[in-house]
Amino acid sequence: MRLSFGQHLQQKQVQTLAPRMIQSMEILQMPAIELQEHIEQALAENPMLELNERDPTLPEEPVEHQDLDKPDVDQKELIVDNDKNNTDDFERLLNQPSPETYEDYSKPSSNRIAESGERQHDQMANIVDRPESLQEHLRHQLGEMDLTPEMLKMCERVISSLSAEDGGYLRLALADLLPPDSGQEEMEIAESALAVIQALDPPGVAARDLTECLLLQIKDEMPYADEMRTLVQSHLDNLHHNRMPAIQKATGFSIETIQSALLQMKKLNPKPAAEFIERFVPTITPDVFVDRDEQGKYTVRLEDNGSRGLYISQYYRERLQNGQATAEEKDYIKRKVTAAQWLIESIEQRRSTLTKVSQAIVDHQTQFLELGPEFIEPLKMQQIADKVGVHVTTVSRAVDDKWIQTPRGILPLRRFFVGGTQTDEGEDVAWDKIRIKLQELIDQEDKVRPYSDDELVKRLKAQGLNVARRTITKYRQRMGIPSSRQRRDWSKKLS
Fold it and tell me: In whole angstroms, what is the distance from residue 314 CA to residue 97 CA?
């Protein structure tokens, strides 16, 4: 074997994103509320940044500013270079327009600051208490029981493994909750602890599967308790597929008894811990608004939310001009001014990009806005990216978690991006239209002889819509529409 040693040079081309670009993308992705919070945080952390908070409903008042008597200069980017003294850049900073050029922005008054503080205090005072979690609910019940330390410790392990989002099921094996060197005695304690938890409220909690969950909820005093246990233990699949004759043959129960027991079973809860899910309903604030002019053209506008009232503090401009700042202060101001300028420009870039993207979407989906969901057009993000002249990822960030106020209500911007297929004539048709047509066919069908999926395919094809049978089945299930056999059985029960 021969070993060789040597030096090798390898050249790689690596693309990295500048901090400014990263900030710009992050701000673009922020919805209106999050952007407002970001601005408030920046105002608190950066003294160079100020915000005009004048009430737009009040008449404008002239704001007196010191006349710096400086010539006009280009508003190019302020470059901060640690290797240079940035004399030219700071000359430009001093020569930049004072806040009256930024739409007469002024510093907030002391009264405005006091009012803002009072509003924040009121908001904090009115915060709703967090609801009790599943774990807290179970622990409170354990606290009223007389358990040994070993049993209590094991009960805590079981409780910690439960999730309200998962219905309160125990998905881990008991052995996984024990140390690796545990023996039979520890396993017996674990089984006893599980029994304790399963006896707590809500009924069915800590079950290891659906069968056990339902059995835990069946009490002897319930009507058809024995019949329900039989159905749960051996015939859940038959019940799911409505195979009543098969159940009758296997159990000897009459159809009436099975149906009565089934009615009682519907009172059981397959997800007993669902009530402990913390349901957070966010406040929807539209980022974009759609207006219609006299000619019937739809145009978009963005909500300001105070984001355009940001400007660089006049105080620090004057301090630099008067030569009062020390070298250390100048370095501090240098960094903070750059951060403020980046933020202002990133917000304006967000405004520009979101406006262009939203307008392109609205232009493409005009028929949807005028006539309704059936007339939505297939649309991909790449189409909007090509029209606006940006990368497709920019479009994705622009529409992410954004809402638009339209004549059809407040909708997520992503709602307008839909897939589709083609008709026999080559016309693009959105899947939303197909789903609407599918619902219409099922609503109009003979309930005694409902359409099969194959028949639905034929009827859609007669309307020029070519859809595969598996696609019909998928959309029917997503829409919560039972199969033709189930629809027929239900119609018999109702007749």
Answer: 9
Specify the pLDDT at position 202.
92
Instruction: Choose among 52, 49, 90: nearest CA to 73.
Output: 90
Residue 119 CA to residue 404 CA, distance in Å, equals 28
pLDDT of residue 9: 52
Distance CA 143, CA 50 (A): 53
End-to-end CA, the chain: 88
Residue 116 confidence class, pLDDT cut points 50, 70, 90: very low
State the Cα–Cα distance between residues 208 and 213, nearest whole angstrom: 7
* pTM, two decimal places: 0.48
Asked whether 416 and 456 are in contact (CB, 8 A), the reply is: no
Mode of pairing for the β-strands spanning 298-302 and 409-412: unpaired
Maximum C-alpha span of the chain: 101
Q: To the nearest whole number, what is the mean pLDDT of the chain?
A: 76
Report the C-alpha gap between 455 and 441 in whole angstroms: 10
- Rounded Cα distance, 446 and 118, in Å: 64
Quick one: angle between helices 392-399 and 381-388, nearest 10? 110
> β-pairing, 403-406 with 298-302?
unpaired
Partners of 380 in the beta sheet?
none
User: 């053209």: which residue's tokens?
Assistant: 297
Q: Which residue has the higher pLDDT, 402 or 97?
A: 402
Show the domains of the chain with their CATH numbers: 134-276 (no CATH), 421-494 (1.10.10.60)
Cα-to-chain-centroid distance, residue 495? 44
Compute the half-sphere exposure of residue 33: CA atoms within 13 Å on the CB side of its CA.
Answer: 8
pLDDT in tens, 16-28: 456 777 888 888 8
